[in-house]
Amino acid sequence: MALDTNTQHSTENGAKWRLEILLTSPFSFIGRQVIRWVNNLGAATIFLYLALIKTFRSKQLSKTIQQLYYIGAKSTTIIMLVSFFTGMVLSIQSYHALVKFGAQGAVGTLVSLSLIRELGPVLTAIMITARAGSAMTAEIGIQRISEQIDALKTMRIDPLRYLISPRVVASIISFPILTTVFDLIGIIGGFISGVILLGLNSGVYFHGIQANVEMKDISDGLIKAVVFAIIVSTVCCYQGYYSHMRSDSHGAKAVGFATTSAVVISCVLILVSDYVVTSFLI
Amino acid sequence: MTTPLIEFKGVTKCFGDRTVLNNVNLQIYEGHVTTIIGLSGAGKSVILKHIIGLLKPDEGTILFRGKPIAEMKRAEINSSFAQMSYMFQDNALFDSMSVYENIAFPLQETTNLKKAEIDRRVMARIEQTELTDAAHKYPSELSGGMQKRVALARALITDPRIVLFDEPTSGQDPVRKNAILSMIAQYHRKFGFTAILVSHEIPDVYFISNRILALYNKEIVFQGTPEELEKFDHPFNDEVIHSLEALQKELTGLYSKRKFKVMNQAQLKRREFGENYCVAIFTLEELNTIITKLGHDAAQEAIHSMGLYIDKHFGPVGGFSTRRRINEIVTVLPYSNLTEAGNILNNFVKDFQTHGTHEIWSVAQKHLTAGKSVEFTVLAGLAQGQPATDIDSVIALAKSQQKVIGRLRCAAEE
Q1: A193 occurs within a structural domain
Q2: Which residues in chain B have their CB less than 8 angstroms from residue A150's CB?
Q3: Separation between Cα atoms, residue B47 and residue B218, nearest integer Å
Q4: Which residues of B touch A (CB under 8 A)?
Q5: What is the pLDDT of residues B87-96, one digit of tens each?
Q6: Who's near A52: CB < 8 A, 6+ residues apart?
Q7: Does the beta-carbon distance from B82 to A156 stay under 8 Å?
Q8: Which chain B residue has its CA at the smallest distance from A144's CA?
Q9: Predicted pLDDT at B58
Q10: Any CB–CB contact under 8 A between A153 and chain B?
């Protein structure tokens, strides 16, 4: 009889314990994820800080110019192509929407403000993430798994100074310049679509831009570009640099996963930070 | 008592739940070639990574010239580590840079030397390591052996005082293994650096090592000379050294010095007093000149070829051989008297002069630069001993009896 009571107690305890686990496990999972996120955020901030303070060491200029060429100059063609068609499609869409109200004269204003305030910085950042950011992660990741980063350390060459700092600085310089290129080509694309193809008056198109675009719009767009540059370069370099510490994979697979993570995290953070920065600037 | 250059005191290192080093104590002395031996995955590379500062111990102290590294100031640590260079097991070459750029890289990044001076130093190293034709190739376009040489050239370009070699011969054939070890020995003599090696190449690595450290079961179980290791009575000898030596015999046809001694003693014990045995000793003269003119690979290929011919002729009559020095092979003929041994040697000489020299000639032709010539001289000596006689004195007698058995002069056309 006593044995039966004990068994009954232990069964009840077991059931209670399972229920507790069931109820608390989602929270503990979320808790672990949050802690991991905060840890990574802190580590990435220190990583960025260390990379930035090493910018002004000797022999950095040539490496920064090399990265400027790769991240900036070599991305120009794709940026021009994307911006041209973005401007054209914006112009065509806004023309057909505004013509219903007889307000097609505002096409120039709409195209230019959309590009300068939002689409220019955001699409430029996303395009560079896809082109140069992913390459940054993969290149640094491969250097990590093939012990090239360890080799740098054994030669007393700081990997943060040699690999990361030039990429961060080159991104901070390239992003605003490419954003400006995006805005200009986008406006030209809008002009070709709206004026040449749809027959808008060219004077009205440019007057709308001149009258409504303010210096603050341009500077806000460039501030966003700098913020995105910092985010993209830090996330992509950080993911590559620590690809050997991933818990989900090892070796070449880890580099692949790190590259995917870098692109996804960068894109999400670009959009989230766009909202945050806009709400501060507006 | 000399202060060790590097000393580990009670160093323990764990990766997660796995303990790799447990209370490791070791000393490495300046100017020596110290080799760390042990089974794969035993933690040999982990020791090297602690020395160069890539890893930090969980417990214990690492001392550099008697001073704990943990108590040093940053500038002091930097100046200590600046004297070191590291050759990685997988080379860790920068794959987006050419051979020239890889070798020049440490000078470009860590010194203020002018471009012309960097160029001069790099080209000198490229020539020394026989990489002239590959200077503008990328690492992926090179063979494993050439990549090793690039890594070696890069490790030596800054004229370091201490060089750490992490399995410098892994993935190489027996000839290239010996060529790399010979290269390390030659540079060690030439530049006088302290070399710390991790290697499996037992016994070849003994020829160039002053000290051996044996890592077994997460601890250093032996520190001493290669000769002392031969007498070391420990399970390490059975589990590690014997298995590696068996592999060595299969690959080269030559026994290790230790195995050779054991076999010799076993043979002599079976003999009765009054029965004779013979010792033959073969030397390839002027090895350093051959290395200078043809390179390490060719020199080792010539010795390897000589070893194969010796095994071919003396093996079938019960002879067993070992490499006594880097250019010297000793063979014991346990069942032959001096007359029989003389006959076998004559047959060997005929075959070696007809076919063996031809092989060496073709090796030389491949490596010889136009307008240069090189001479190979092979000496052989025979001596007879009795079971009671010490083998070393018989070897010394054979050495004193050495005569030229083959001379080959190779010249490359202009």
Answers
A1: yes
A2: 54, 88, 92
A3: 11
A4: 52-54, 78, 81-82, 84-86, 88, 90, 92-95, 105-106, 109-110, 158
A5: 998 889 999 9
A6: A165, A168, A169
A7: yes
A8: B92
A9: 93
A10: yes
Do the domain assignments include residue A53?
yes
Cβ contact (<8 Å) for B54 and A154? yes
A247 touches chain B (CB under 8 A): no
Domain boundaries, chain B: 6-248, 253-411
B165-222: pLDDT as tens digits: 998 887 777 777 777 888 788 888 877 889 999 987 776 677 788 898 988 888 898 8
ipTM: 0.78
pLDDT band at A7 (very low <50, low <70, confident <90, very high): low
Which of B88, B105, B106 lies at the smallest CB-CB distance from A147?
B88
- CATH architecture, domain B253-411: 2-Layer Sandwich (3.30)
Q: Which helix (H) or strand (E) is B68 found in, with range?
A: strand B67-68
**Residue A17 resides in a domain:** no
Q: Is residue A50 a part of any domain in this protein?
A: yes
Domain B6-248 has CATH 3.40.50.300: yes
Can you give the residue range of the structural domain that contains A67?
A: 44-281
Residues of chain B with pLDDT under 50: 251
